Amino acid sequence: MKNIAVYPGSFDPFTNGHLDIIRRAHPLFEEIIIAVAINSKKSSLFSPEERVEMIGKVFKGWDKIKIDTFEGLTVDYCKEKNSRVILRGLRAVTDFDYEYAISLMNKKLAPEIETYFLMADNEYSFVSSTIVKEVARHGRAVSNQVPDIVGDALTKKFSV
Ligand code: ADP
């Protein structure tokens, strides 16, 4: 069975923190699927299609990285893709409660699927999509927090 990890998230937008998690997980798996969660109840800045396109550009030429969208439960998506690993990143303690609760629920729903956590690197532990959007909305540069493609898309989004 191929060693496939699913990295689910909103990625609205994809940041250097997300990128760091992928870079570090890259040698550990034969394939990593970055799975953009479609959540109609959550309002987003970028459409799922825009997010997939941007992330695709970031990982152009990375053969092991696939980008997809999914709706519904992450464990169901993992089963569909024959993956037994959910990859998540952990920043400050504020992430912990939520991530722990979700991982326990996922374990109940699908005991054969494990959640692997990578601790955020010091440099990215305060990088968040929400803060990046807020800063960009007010016309300030976020170039050290997001890939160039994402920075350009943010500038474009807020200049119209
Ligand atoms: P969510 O899945 O809650 O919508 P995100 O799309 O922001 O969250 O993030 C997806 C995953 O990446 C989550 O596990 C989140 O904790 C993790 N993550 C977000 N930002 C960072 C960062 N700066 N460093 C490491 N991991 C991060």
UniProtKB/TrEMBL annotation:
<keyword id="KW-0548">Nucleotidyltransferase</keyword>
<dbReference type="GO" id="GO:0004595">
    <property type="term" value="F:pantetheine-phosphate adenylyltransferase activity"/>
</dbReference>
<feature type="binding site">
    <location>
        <begin position="124"/>
        <end position="130"/>
    </location>
    <ligand>
        <name>ATP</name>
    </ligand>
</feature>
<feature type="binding site">
    <location>
        <position position="74"/>
    </location>
    <ligand>
        <name>substrate</name>
    </ligand>
</feature>
<keyword id="KW-0547">Nucleotide-binding</keyword>
<keyword id="KW-0460">Magnesium</keyword>
<dbReference type="InterPro" id="IPR001980">
    <property type="entry name" value="PPAT"/>
</dbReference>
<feature type="binding site">
    <location>
        <position position="99"/>
    </location>
    <ligand>
        <name>ATP</name>
    </ligand>
</feature>
<comment type="subunit">
    <text>Homohexamer.</text>
</comment>
<dbReference type="GO" id="GO:0015937">
    <property type="term" value="P:coenzyme A biosynthetic process"/>
</dbReference>
<dbReference type="InterPro" id="IPR004821">
    <property type="entry name" value="Cyt_trans-like"/>
</dbReference>
<feature type="binding site">
    <location>
        <position position="18"/>
    </location>
    <ligand>
        <name>ATP</name>
    </ligand>
</feature>
<feature type="binding site">
    <location>
        <position position="88"/>
    </location>
    <ligand>
        <name>substrate</name>
    </ligand>
</feature>
<feature type="binding site">
    <location>
        <begin position="89"/>
        <end position="91"/>
    </location>
    <ligand>
        <name>ATP</name>
    </ligand>
</feature>
<feature type="site" description="Transition state stabilizer">
    <location>
        <position position="18"/>
    </location>
</feature>
<keyword id="KW-0173">Coenzyme A biosynthesis</keyword>
<dbReference type="InterPro" id="IPR014729">
    <property type="entry name" value="Rossmann-like_a/b/a_fold"/>
</dbReference>
<dbReference type="Pfam" id="PF01467">
    <property type="entry name" value="CTP_transf_like"/>
</dbReference>
<comment type="similarity">
    <text>Belongs to the bacterial CoaD family.</text>
</comment>
<keyword id="KW-0067">ATP-binding</keyword>
<keyword id="KW-0963">Cytoplasm</keyword>
<protein>
    <recommendedName>
        <fullName>Phosphopantetheine adenylyltransferase</fullName>
        <ecNumber>2.7.7.3</ecNumber>
    </recommendedName>
</protein>
<dbReference type="GO" id="GO:0005524">
    <property type="term" value="F:ATP binding"/>
</dbReference>
<feature type="binding site">
    <location>
        <position position="42"/>
    </location>
    <ligand>
        <name>substrate</name>
    </ligand>
</feature>
<comment type="pathway">
    <text>Cofactor biosynthesis; coenzyme A biosynthesis; CoA from (R)-pantothenate: step 4/5.</text>
</comment>
<comment type="function">
    <text>Reversibly transfers an adenylyl group from ATP to 4'-phosphopantetheine, yielding dephospho-CoA (dPCoA) and pyrophosphate.</text>
</comment>
<feature type="binding site">
    <location>
        <begin position="10"/>
        <end position="11"/>
    </location>
    <ligand>
        <name>ATP</name>
    </ligand>
</feature>
<dbReference type="GO" id="GO:0005737">
    <property type="term" value="C:cytoplasm"/>
</dbReference>
<feature type="domain" description="Cytidyltransferase-like">
    <location>
        <begin position="6"/>
        <end position="134"/>
    </location>
</feature>
<keyword id="KW-0808">Transferase</keyword>
<feature type="binding site">
    <location>
        <position position="10"/>
    </location>
    <ligand>
        <name>substrate</name>
    </ligand>
</feature>
